[in-house]
# Entry
Amino acid sequence: MISRVSKALATIGVLVFLFLPATQRSLPKTVWVVLFIATLTYGISLFLSVGMPPHRRWAIAYLAFVSLTYLLAGAWGFLRNGDLIEAAMWDSLISPYPLITFIDQLIHHFPHTMSRAPYETLPLSQHRLFSIAVIVVSAVATGAAFAMTKEKKAAYMVWLVLLGASIVAVLGYIIVGFVSWGMKETITPLCWEASYLIAYVVARSGTDLRSPTRTVRQP
# Structure
């Protein structure tokens, strides 16, 4: 049987291969992104118990990858000259700010033309506060993802709440896409959201999260 060390080295080798200039030029962007996510997810799965069914181990590893991605996006907010990278990351993730900007436009700037409003995926004001919130929530989500391996009910509840919040955020993309950006801009957040939901369902499959019943002693 191949050891975890060998699998980890192979994972690192694949990541190095993916970042070679020749590989990046030859592979379509979508294929490259899928391979990158799959490789990192597999690498994270190596830290999880081998006693778990493979489908649950991969699903939990993917959720951990997702939370770590948002954690990294939040951390970029504190790095000097990292604005462009941070903005690019949030353009590729699900941000709550399209919905927040739309609500702000609806309340404070109506009846200005909504199609011309400056909708944002990243706040220009209170930037540090937003980054702190993202880091805290992402850290909790990461801990909850790894706690799923112990079948902790609280861990699944945390992710259920986060998924509900992300669905609301995606609705913001749909609304803004309809009034301003165009519906093409909703494809990426919808794909992300679908992958989160599928991973959560797979991670929860086969688990028994019911509270244990107390045995009543007979006199």
Remarks:
- Residues 56-204 form one domain.
- The chain has nine helices and no strands.
